[in-house]
TrEMBL record:
Pfam families: Exo_endo_phos. It comes from the Bacteria. Coiled coil: none annotated. Residues 4-215 form the Endonuclease/exonuclease/phosphatase domain. GO terms for biological process: DNA repair. Gene3D superfamilies: Endonuclease/exonuclease/phosphatase. GO terms for molecular function: DNA binding; double-stranded DNA 3'-5' DNA exonuclease activity; endonuclease activity. Keywords: Endonuclease, Hydrolase, Nuclease. It comes from Oceaniferula flava. This is Endonuclease/exonuclease/phosphatase family protein. The keyword Nuclease applies. Transmembrane segments: none annotated.
Amino acid sequence: MRILSWNLQHGGGSRIERLSKALVSYDADVILLNEYRHNKAGADLRARLTEAGYAYQSEPHAEPRQNIIFAASRQPFEATTFPGQLSDPELGDYTARVLLVRIGDLNIFGVYMPSMKFKRPVFDFLLRLSERYLTEDSLIMGDLNTGRHYEDEAGATFVSTSQFEALLAQGWIDTWRSRNPEAREFTWFSRGYNNGFRLDHALASPSLDKKVEDAFYSHKEREDGVTDHSLMILDIKSPIY
């Protein structure tokens, strides 16, 4: 099973054709998209993915200009959103930033973090997830907008690094870092200062991490201007679901 995560950059706009071609070329089973939007570009992307075999799609409700999380799959899945009035009031305006996709016994939390201090409620939500997810095959994947100081950035500017570390302390495993302990790759660069940051992550439960065959980034699309983020791919032993 291949799972792909990518930030579209404000819905994709006029880049939808290039984005969709790149997405399809990786032949993923599950696609998680950050900064998806409910607008004309979003509808175009959904149609292109459907034509490519991704018949099962889901996203939280949101206004057309709001950047949210989106999931598409070749296999049927059960999708769960987290509207604040029903499940977690502290998510507030960020309920469209988390989407749970369940395929067989695999739990995938697609996450798109806000920036700066606004990501804290979303991290708190993840830190309060039921402990059962760590005992099952589970994954937290997406643009977490955070990482470790001096490892995932040159300096120490990240907000909520302590919450990112708290997830790891709970038992979630940074799949890419655990396989590349000395490497440094960045998935987004600031335009003003050209500083690099690794913002895109896949955190696996211990049982799922043992089944991960590869975790890697593709930077070509970002370097070619298709969007401003590198994409991330996770390959998991198959068939398991």
